[in-house]
Amino acid sequence: DTGVSQDPRHKITKRGQNVTFRCDPISEHNRLYWYRQTLGQGPEFLTYFQNEAQLEKSRLLSDRFSAERPKGSFSTLEIQRTEQGDSAMYLCASSPPFRVSYNEQFFGPGTRLTVL
Amino acid sequence: GNSVTQMEGPVTLSEEAFLTINCTYTATGYPSLFWYVQYPGEGLQLLLKATKADDKGSNKGFEATYRKETTSFHLEKGSVQVSDSAVYFCALGGITGGGNKLTFGTGTQLKVEL
After folding, report:
1. Which residues on chain A are in Cβ contact (under 8 Å) with B1?
2. Each residue of A43-55: pLDDT tens digit?
3. CB–CB contact A43 B96 (8 Å)
4. Residues of chain A with pLDDT under 70
5. Residue B83: how many CB atoms within 10 A of its CB?
6. Is the pLDDT at B62 greater than 90, yes or no?
7. Calpha distance B62→B75 (Å, rounded)
8. B26-53 as b/e, with b when 16 or more CB fall inside 10 Å?
9. Which has the closest alpha carbon to A32: A41, A42, A22?
């Protein structure tokens, strides 16, 4: 039983560059979440997918951020024109269908982004 | 909106000491409450949860009771071990569009020494 996987685990980029992260949820989990965690803080919600539909986006998700889940399986999070303030750990989590367990989320190891 | 406040760390204890990490919340409706743990170099893991008032979540010797009257979900363990050293996050779940957006506290680092 594989857990949630994220790729890459670490990304260093220069300010102004675009970056894309990938998340592969647990098989048959139809719900997928992205969070951002900065040093010394708890994770903050960014966005939520149910299957391929993006049902909620946080105000934290500026126009430079876009997330997709084209086939309802893996998801990507893209940040355009990165800024130093984007440096953080980006976490992905997935959940089984609501009827199975409406509130338990399983987290991946995260992608640590450093913007120079 | 929803918010979670938990005690600041680090909390340093000797092995076999009693642990309490305080957590209070503000929420509309009836959220579920969680404790997640993050061991060094690892991802977040669900430690325990409670879905309604007066529920007690428990796992690995840790316990927390959902207290609606005091809006609290304090984490306790009777005898900590060095292996319990980690960062502990209190979180509440808000149902949204069939999902469950989690709102986390800032985390409390626990250090257990021999």
Report:
1. none
2. 999 999 999 999 9
3. no
4. 1, 98-102
5. 10
6. yes
7. 7
8. ebeeebbbbbbbbeeeebbebbbbbeee
9. A22
